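Lab notebook, bench 4. Still working through the backlog of constructs that have no structural model yet. Next entry is a single chain of 373 residues. Request: give me the structure tokens for it.
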Amino acid sequence: MTTHAPSTTTKTMRPPAGAGPIAWMRQNLFATPVDALLTFAGLYIVYRLLGGFIDWALVSATWTGDDGKACSRDGAGACWPFIWHKFGLFMSGRFPDAERWRIYLTYGLALAGLVPLMIPGVPGKLWLFIYMLGVFPLLAFVLLSGGMFGLSHVPTELWGGLLVTLVVACVGIAASFPLGILLALGRRSELPIVRWVSIGFIEIVRGVPLVTMLFFASVMLPLFLPENVTFDKLLRALIGVALFSAAYLAEVIRGGLQAIPRGQLEAADALGLSYWQKMGLIVLPQALKLVIPGIVNSFIALFKDTSLVLIIGLFDLLGIVQQSVQADAKWFSPSTSTTGYFFAGFIFWIFCFGMSRYSSFIERRLGIGDRKS
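Model written out:
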């Protein structure tokens, strides 16, 4: 009988422990002449890009001043005084200065419930979940809108900046997620009416841009309401964003549902579980776990798409920065617009990067993508 030696798996060689950074660089960056050439080329590109940015943002930047004249000198970089003087406007729009404590309190209440809810191992998850979905929305509505409990009323026309961005994004995410699950289940339903209504909604919404949905919610939606019944402009935008995001989420979730083996469903039927027990206890937990990257990707896209509410007259962070750049002649300078747009882009990047990193953390914790031989 012929015997064969057991096969060995080729592994990437790593420097032994304690070899130090020099050994790591030799093996990973300068192992061959081609690797060395690529390393030097990459370092040169990084130097050119990073050097120019540092010069613009720090070395040649203007740090003090009361108007755009301070930023109009030759070779001036970023105009940071523009950000300092407009910071309150960028964060809360035309919300009255004396009432902005209500915004900060709302942020604090949100973080008080969201942070422990996102940290594994913190007890009382059920109560935190109830607080975030039931109690906090009421508290936020009372604090931001006012008109009760001695708080002055602040109409949504005065809201703006980061406040509008977060309201549209958070409400859109919270509303579109369960609606997307229902649409995904409806598209796979055995009831023809439910299935075709779900398919029709998903395909129609996915076939038009978000701007169309916003215009429909802002202009057409009031026409379908009874007389003397109207919706606030911000509420119309929330409805349009939630419906648009739900259609895309439904397809992401449907992909997870199709990945569940048929045997799981048959086992649930054998146990005598009802349809909703089967979905809630067996199918959906596995399906949602599989499509976490796609879900978070949809949430990130939704957060960035909030800038489109400017089309219907709502000034989110990007919109109010653009308005400040174009409408305030006092701060006119060659670098004002660049600085303002960089600030808005950086704020968007912080939130999107945070969602991406937390998604990666959840994936590693749940073992998504792991394959055992």
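Notes after review: Residues 1-13 have pLDDT under 50 and may be disordered. Residues 86 and 203 are 42 Å apart (CA to CA). Flag for follow-up if needed.
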